[in-house]
Automatic annotation (TrEMBL):
Gene3D superfamilies: 1.10.10.1650, 2.30.30.730. Residues 53-121 form the DUF6852 domain. Residues 5-50 form the DUF5606 domain. It comes from Tenuifilum thalassicum. This is DUF5606 domain-containing protein. Transmembrane segments: none annotated.
Length: 146
């Protein structure tokens, strides 16, 4: 399944990640990465593309793809800690991957969500899309220079 990071969506009120399928009259059609089921998401729902999500750090916001790459590097491409682990363990783990994250503005619930997304991408063999984004950005920069 060819997927781009900007096509992967997080939808408020729903667990897991969704792939954008098409625009509908009053919302979007998405497919769950968890079970492959398609559904209509109304335009009133809060939908965020993973490419648009960032994590607060002490200096500035870090794009989610870079945070996921750090977890991937920490785990050598393997699964991350179980997001249902103890809150202290989750925060300590996340600090290993991203020591500069803003401890006051990044909540444990945010970290659990990120770990859940990482594990889902890892399980589905989709971690390569994190590098795909860099390749696309480099290509765009090369095109701009020409």
């Amino acid at each position: 399944m060819e997927v781009k990071l900007k096509e992967l969506l997080a939808i408020s009120g729903y667990s897991g990640l969704f792939k954008f399928i098409s625009q509908a009259r009053q919302g979007v059609i998405v497919e769950s990465l968890v079970d492959g089921k398609r559904m209509h998401v109304p335009a009133t729902a809060k939908v965020s593309a993973l490419a648009d999500i960032a994590v607060f750090t002490e200096a500035e916001e870090m794009p989610l793809k870079d945070v996921l790459k750090r977890i991937e590097a920490l785990e050598n491409g393997g699964p991350a800690i179980n997001p249902k682990s103890d809150s202290k363990d989750i925060r300590a783990y996340f600090e290993k991957a991203l020591p500069e994250f803003d401890k006051e503005r990044v909540y444990t619930s945010d970290i659990k969500k990120i770990l859940t997304w990482y594990n889902l991408l890892q399980e589905k063999g989709l971690l390569e899309i994190l590098n795909q984004v860099d390749e696309e950005e480099n290509q765009e920069q090369t095109d701009d220079k020409e």
